[in-house]
Design brief:
This is Probable nitronate monooxygenase. The protein contains 13 helices and 10 strands. By secondary structure, it is an alpha/beta fold. The structure holds flavin mononucleotide (FMN). Flavin mononucleotide binds next to helix 12.
């Protein structure tokens, strides 16, 4: 066991990913010695219409995960932006309610450091694993003051919605390590054991990994998408908006061309969302809708493997 309070064998947290981190993947990660984390829309195929349904569906997914593992696992909590009160984010409240009622202890909180959210989690004896969406030293220090137990330093190398600061993992990790005294985990472009060793050399005590888990047997990602991740070289990605990178499918290239003309990130992201976003493309495998978002080093992902094989290979 590592001594970070995670209760895991290895210092690895599976990053929550909208639509594609369900009970099966999360339990596989926890059973293999990491911390699995349920993301938003975990286990769903259709959009959930309201917060009440989110609470009910998330409760069911937590129970399903518990049936598959006796090890700890966590849940993704997105904080309200711009210092708004928690009451303005009914979907976040629904996720918290489900997690508290089921006695979860590991909360992967993403966004801005948010006192009300941190306090509520602490009142429920939870651990705050905080990932600032935009990684700055000030935000990391504020999170530590507010009680974060672990802080994740994310480089622009990552998959998903990118930080608006274009600093790579090699820049952000040592900055955070110098700035805070709580353990720092590294995120962004960590696809194999060499990257694990590299971020450990920078002072990170653990890794926070998303993209690599997409190409695993247990991930609820469409088979054609898993294969595409394995077959695509790193340079065959495009920016489909100012903060989203995607594999350069013909559809992604259409988004990229529009974005290159307009430079309007919000409009591009809205269009991608209207077309089905990650659900249509990554979950259902409809490559002519939405995008496949990945990190900028997918060329090093060469095989679809089991979660157990991936985690063992990271710490070989
Ligand atoms: C397909 C995909 C979906 C993501 N969805 C979310 C999300 O819903 N919430 C979140 O906090 N981060 C999300 N992220 C970001 C990851 O949690 C994590 O920061 C990132 O994957 C780490 O970098 P890596 O992909 O290079 O391993 C997503 C990333 C990917 C690749």
């Amino acid at each position: 066991m590592n001594d970070l309070g995670l209760g895991t064998q290895y210092p690895i947290i599976q990053a929550p990913m909208n639509w594609v981190t369900d009970a099966k993947l999360v339990a596989a990660v926890s059973n293999a010695g990491g911390l699995g984390v349920l993301g938003t829309n975990a286990g769903q195929r259709e959009v959930t219409p309201n917060p009440k349904q989110v609470e009910a569906r998330m409760t069911a997914e937590i129970q399903k995960t518990k049936a598959l593992t006796s090890r700890p696992f966590g849940i993704n909590i997105l904080t309200p932006g711009d210092g708004r009160a928690l009451a303005t984010s009914p979907y976040t409240i629904a996720m918290l309610k489900a997690a508290f009622a089921e006695g979860l202890r590991h909360f992967v909180v993403v966004g801005q450091a948010h006192q009300e959210t941190f306090d509520l989690i602490k009142q429920h004896h939870g651990m705050v694993i905080f990932r600032p969406l935009t990684p700055s030293v000030q935000e990391a220090q504020l999170a530590e003051q507010l009680g974060a137990d672990i802080i994740v330093a994310t480089g622009h190398d990552e998959g998903g919605v990118l930080p608006n600061r274009e600093a790579g993992t090699f820049t952000v990790v040592p900055e955070f390590v110098d700035a805070v005294s709580v353990p720092v985990f590294a995120a962004g472009g960590i696809n194999d054991h060499r990257a694990v060793k590299a971020v450990q050399a920078l002072g990170a005590v653990g890794v926070y990994v998303g993209t690599r888990f997409l190409a695993t047997e247990e991930a609820p990602v469409a088979d054609n998408v898993k294969q595409l991740i394995v077959d695509t070289p790193s340079q065959a990605t495009v920016m489909v908006s100012g903060n989203q990178r995607a594999i350069a499918t013909p559809q992604a290239q259409v988004y990229a061309e529009t974005y290159a003309e307009t430079h309007d990130t919000s409009a591009s992201n809205r269009q991608i969302g209207r077309d089905g976003g990650l659900r249509e493309s990554m979950l259902l495998g409809h490559l002519d809708h939405g995008i496949i978002t990945v990190n900028n080093g997918i060329g090093t992902i060469k095989q679809i493997q089991s979660v157990h094989e991936v985690i063992e290979s990271f710490f070989e």
